[in-house]
Amino acid sequence: MQMLASTDRGIVRTWAGKSDLQSSVARNGGRVAVLASGGLDSCVLLACVAEIASEVHPLFVRNGHPWEDAELAALRRFVEALGCSQLRPVAESSMPVRDVLDAHWGARGYHPGFSQGYRANFIPGRNLALLSAASLFAFVHGTGALALGLLDGNPYPDASPQFFSAFETLFAEGMGRTLEILTPFARLSKEEVVRIGNGLPLELSLSCVSPIDGQHCGDGCNKCAERQKAFALAGIPDPTRYRNPPPRVDWKTHKWQD
Ligand SMILES: [Zn+2]
Questions:
Q1: How far is the CA of 26 from the centre of ligand 1 (A)?
Q2: Is residue 162 within 8 Å of residue 170, measured between CB atoms?
Q3: What is the Å distance from ligand 1's center to 214 Cα?
Q4: In the chain, what are the helix, strand and coil shares in percent, each to the nearest 5?
C-alpha cells in the first residue's frame, strides 16, 4: 500500500527517487529552481519538489514556439490551484530560437502527428537552450539546484546523464559556481508520473503542440497521444478536456512508429 503525503492542497504518492531528491534538496539548502513547461511531467515534478523543498522557483522558458502561450497559462493555473506556500510565482524567461529551428526544419515544418513517435517530436538543442536560460536564472536567484521533468526512455542526445554532467562542468567553468542538475523522474515512465500525481489537478496541465484556443487539440499531435496513452496505461480516467475527440487506440498494445 502506498503512503500519501500532502502539500497544501495537492496529494503526491510516494515514488522511486524521492529519497535521492530529498538528499539533493537538503544539500542545496532547501532551495530549488524547476524548469516547468506546464505539461504533465513538470507539473507533477513541481508538486513533488514543493513537498520536500522550502523554496521552489518555477521557471517557464520561451523559445518562440506557437504553443507557449497555452503552456504558460496552464502552468500558472496549475501552480495557483496547488496553492502551495513553498512555490514562488511562476517566472518567465525568453530565449527565442524558433527562427533558427524553422530554418532547420525548412518546408517540412514541425508537425509531430498524432500517430508519430519520438523522432517526429525531436527539437534540436531543446535542453541545451532551456538549460542555458534556466541555469542563468538559478545563478541569479542563488539556487544551487535546478530540476527538470525528464523521463525514462528519452532518446535525445541532450537528455543523457553525460550531457547533464557535462553541462554542470560547463556551468562551473563559466559561472564560477556549482549547479546541480536534478532529473528525479529519469527512471520513471509517463504513466508512473500520472500515478504519482493522481491526487493533483492534472487536468489543468497542458501537453500539446497544436493547442486550439488554449485547449488540447486531442487528435492532432503526438503530445496529446502520449498524454492519452499515459492515463490509459496508468489505469486512471483521463480528466483532460480535449477540443477534438481523441482517436480510439488500444494503448495497451500500441507501439510508436519509431
Ligand atoms: Zn495536441
A1: 37
A2: no
A3: 10
A4: 40, 15, 45
* Cα-to-chain-centroid distance, residue 148: 6
Q: In terms of C-beta density within 10 A (0-12 exposed, 13-18 middle, 19 or more buried), how is residue 26 classed?
A: exposed
Residue 56 main-chain phi, psi, to 5 deg: -120, 130
Question: Which domains, from first to last, does the chain contain?
Answer: 29-207 (3.40.50.620)
Q: pTM higher than 0.70 for the full model?
A: yes
The pLDDT mean for the chain works out to 93
- d(CA 112, ligand 1 centre) in Å: 9
Q: What is the pLDDT of residues 51-92, one digit of tens each?
A: 999 999 999 999 999 999 999 999 999 999 999 999 999 999
Predicted pLDDT of residue 155: 87
